[in-house]
Amino acid sequence: MFNRIKELRAKADISQLELAQKVGVRRETIVFLEKGKYNPSLRLAHDVAKYFGLPIEEVFLFDDEALGKSGESSS
User: Which CATH number characterizes residue 28's domain?
Assistant: First the structure.
């Protein structure tokens, strides 16, 4: 899973700490999310997406979506 958190934070001009405080987690959680080392709970994904005013699927992308693949297997 990939995410756009770092990009969205930059556009919003907020720090990792500020985002963490807004969504009720530690800064380290945001660091791990941005590095792709942590998959969020549905609640956290919802809270992050809500903060940015976006649907979850516009913030968090599965590998095939992030790479522009349709997800269909080729024969």
Answer: 1.10.260.40
Looking at the structure of the chain, the number of domains it has is: 1
35: in domain: yes
pLDDT in tens, 3-23: 999 999 999 999 999 999 999
CB environment 52-66: b (16+ within 10 A), e (fewer): beeebeebbeeeeee
Q: What confidence score (pLDDT) does residue 75 get?
A: 39
Report the DSSP beta bridge partners of residue 21. Answer: none
Which structural domain, as residue segments, surrounds residue 30?
2-61
- Under 8 Å between Cβ of 43 and 23: no
**Global pTM?**
0.81
